[in-house]
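Progress note, sequence design subtask.
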């Protein structure tokens, strides 16, 4: 992790082309007070808006971002927007992509799966917010289609999310994936007590492979278990959001 005046973030190294920058933030080093302590970047969770604004400014400055990120109003959908640059009103979407240098695509999560994408030539990038609803509704397919790249030429990073042993769901979640034709048997498990658990990484990886993506890098961190570094809605309910972002130099 890098620290600059209290801001912790990590450059995601060795995954994307050299002209692509990808960054993962964590919860430490910002201005937000408990239960959002302290680097919350979301405006919709009940945190002090001034603290969130300070956190966003700090991230931009200390991570030396080339522009204000395109913040989204994430709605658990299959909607992706093209990033022309910072927007006055955050678009209603769960992913953004761009082929322009210096424009930052970003998603915020706290259990849902953050996905960063770039083509191997480093000319297109995308950031995807993939909760179970988005995955069931096809956010990955929508995003790959929007980028208009050969899926075999893409590199995909799957970030920190709630692990499969902790993501308890109901039968309705499994049914939603089944109705939409997605592979379910290997990605849902039922414990001896009858509780059902879902694997977001498995669901996402399966969809990516079906689309023709072969280069998938999995971070493997469970944000529920790592309370020191990451927010988790399932763990804390009232909590903040961390960021996964990507841009072309």
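Output:
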């Amino acid at each position: 992790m890098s620290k600059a005046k209290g801001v912790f973030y990590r450059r995601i190294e060795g995954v994307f082309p050299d002209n692509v920058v990808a960054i993962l933030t964590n919860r430490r080093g910002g201005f937000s007070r408990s239960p959002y302590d302290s680097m919350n970047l979301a405006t919709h969770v009940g945190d002090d808006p001034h603290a969130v604004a300070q956190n966003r400014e700090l991230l931009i400055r200390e991570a030396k971002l080339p522009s204000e990120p395109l913040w989204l109003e994430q709605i658990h959908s299959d909607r992706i927007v093209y990033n022309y640059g910072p927007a006055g009103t955050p678009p209603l979407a769960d992913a953004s992509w761009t082929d322009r240098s210096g424009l930052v695509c970003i998603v915020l999560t706290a259990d849902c799966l953050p996905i960063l994408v770039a083509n191997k030539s480093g000319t297109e990038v995308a950031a995807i917010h993939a909760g179970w609803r988005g995955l069931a509704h096809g956010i990955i397919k929508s995003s790959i289609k929007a980028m208009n790249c050969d899926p075999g030429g893409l590199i995909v990073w799957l970030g920190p999310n709630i692990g499969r042993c902790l993501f308890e769901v109901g039968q309705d979640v499994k049914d939603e994936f089944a109705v939409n034709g997605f592979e379910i048997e290997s990605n849902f498990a039922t414990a001896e007590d009858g509780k059902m658990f879902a694997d977001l990484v498995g669901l996402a990886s399966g969809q990516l492979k079906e689309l023709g993506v072969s280069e998938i890098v999995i971070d493997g961190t469970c944000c529920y278990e790592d309370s020191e570094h990451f927010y988790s809605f399932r763990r804390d309910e009232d909590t903040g959001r961390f960021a996964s972002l990507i841009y072309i130099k």
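The CA atoms of residues 110 and 139 lie 18 Å apart. Work on this subtask will continue into the next period as scheduled.
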